[in-house]
Amino acid sequence: xxxxxxxxxxxxxxxxxxxxxxxxxxxxxxxxxxxxxxxxxxxxxxxxxxxxxxxxxxxxxxxxxxxxxxxxxxxxxxxxxxxxxxxxxxxxxxxxxxxxxxxxxxxxxxxxxxxxxxxxxxxxxxxxxxxxxxxxxxxxxxxxxxxxxxxxxxxxxxxxxxxxxxxxxxxxxxxxxxxxxxxxxxxxxxxxxxxxxxxxxxxxxxxxxxxxxxxxxxxxxxxxxxxxxxxxxxxxxxxxxxxxxxxxxxxxxxxxxxxxxxxxxxxxxxxxxxxxxxxxxxxxxxxxxxxxxxxxxxxxxxxxxxxxxxxxxxxxxxxxxxxxxxxxxxxxxxxxxxxxxxxxxxxxxxxxxxxxxxxxxxxxxxxxxxxxxxxxxxxxxxxxxxxxxxxxxxxxxxxxxxxxxxxxxxxxxxxxxxxxxxxxxxxxxxxxxxxxxxxxxxxxxxxxxxxxxxxxxxxxxxxxxxxxxxxxxxxx
Length: 476
Ligand code: NAD
Hints:
Residues 37-454 form the Aldehyde dehydrogenase domain. This is Aldehyde dehydrogenase. Belongs to the aldehyde dehydrogenase family. The protein is α/β, with parallel strands linked by helices. 42% of the residues lie in helices and 17% in strands. The chain has 14 helices and 16 strands. The protein has helices spanning 15-31, 37-66, 71-97, 136-147, 161-174, 187-194, 207-219, 242-254, 274-288, 304-319, 374-383, 397-406, 441-447, 459-464; strands at 100-102, 114-121, 124-128, 151-155, 180-182, 200-204, 224-227, 232-236, 264-270, 323-326, 345-348, 365-371, 389-393, 411-414, 435-436, 449-456. Helix 7 links the parallel strand 6 (200-204) and strand 7 (224-227). The termini are far apart. Bound molecules: nicotinamide-adenine-dinucleotide.
C-alpha cells in the first residue's frame, strides 16, 4: 500500500469547532431520536436533487482537480454511481426500517413472550473520504447513513479542493449543519476529526492511514468501518475467453487511469494463454484510444507525487529485469505535459522482489504473471494480504470452486471486473488488510444502524418460569 498523502491545504477547522458541530448535531439528535421514513426519504431526495441539478458542475470540478478527468467517466463513476444507491435507499428504506420478529427460546413463545429486533439510528457518523472518487465516496455512503436515520460529519479529501468546496457549498445550501456538516482540511484535520467521539466512523482510504484511524477511534471506543484497497488479482483460467479477460483487465486499468480501489492490480494468466493475453490487451487499448496525451476520454494521475510513485514502480521493475510494454499509440511525448497522464503499461512476468508486486498500484500499470498449475494461483494470492476484489475468467467449475473456497477477499466477480460492487443488494467491503465492515443497500442500512434486541415478557412466563429462578430454590 502506498503511504499516506502529505497535505498541501491549511488546516481549516480547530478541534474545538469540530466538537461544537458534533455537540450541535447531538442536541438535535435528542430532539428527533427516531426519524420516520418520510424524514429519511426527504433527506435522501435532497441528495438526489443536488446530484441531478449540479452533475455538470461536479464533473467539471473533478476534472479541474485531476488536471483532466474524463467527463463521461465521471458521469458514470461519480454521478450515476451516487444516484443509484440513493434511489435504491429511497425505494427500500420503509421496508428496511421494519421490526424483525425473532424466535424466543422454547417454550416461552408458546406462553406468550415475544422477541424482535428494531433498527435504531446509531447517532452521529463521521465519514472520511479519499480523492479518487470525490463525489461517489461521499454521496454513496450518505445513502446508507441517512437511510439509517443518522446525522453525519464529512471530512473530504484535501487533494480535490474544487470538488470538496463545491460539495460543501451544495450540502450547506440544502441541509442544516445539524443534519450534515462538512469539515475541510488535510491530514492534521483528519487526525483531529478521527478522535471525535462519533457513534460510528467510516474511513475510506489507504491502509497506512487506517492504522491511525483505528488508534484514534479506540480512545472513545468508536466502532469503525474501514474501506481500504489492496492487490486485487485477476485470474485467467484454463478455459477463459482470453479476449474478454484482456478487455476487462484493460477497462479496470484505464477507468480513472487505474486510480480505483477495485482495479485489477495484477493478472495471473495460464502459461499457454500469456502471449494471446498480452496481444489482446494491446488490441483492446488500441480500440479505446488512438492517442492519449490530449484524449478527453483518458484521465490524469491526481498529482506529481503519485505520478512519480508510478514512474518509480515501473523503473524498479525494469531495473530488476522485467519486460515493460508501454502503450503509446500515437508515439506522443509525455515528458513535458501540463498534467500527469501516465501511459498504460504491462509488466511481464514480474518477480516478488519487485515493488509492483508488493504495493497497491493505484494507476494504469498491470503486472502479468504466468502460471502452469492452478495451485500456483492460490499460493500467489495467499502470499499477499487479503484483497478487496478478485476476478476470475473462465468456466471451469473446479477452478471457480478453488477460487471461491480457498481464497479470502472482500468480494468476487466471475467473468468481469468491478461488477460485484455495483450490485445494490450485495455488501461492499474488504476483509483483513483490505478493510472491515461493509455497506451498500440493506447491508449499509444495517451497518449504520444499531440492531436493538427487544424482549416482551408475558405474564404467564413471568408467573410460572421466572419465579422459579428466584431463591429459595426447590428441587424442581
Ligand atoms: P488517504 O488515506 O491518504 O486519505 C483518505 C482521507 O484520509 C483523506 O480525507 C485524508 O485527508 C485523510 N487523512 C489523511 N491522513 C489522516 C490521518 N492521519 N488521520 C485521519 N485522516 C487522515 O487515501 P487516498 O490517497 O485519498 O485514497 C487512496 C486509497 O483509498 C487507496 O488505498 C484506495 O485503495 C483506497 N480506497 C478505497 C476504497 C474502498 O471503497 N474500499 C475506495 C476508494 C479508495
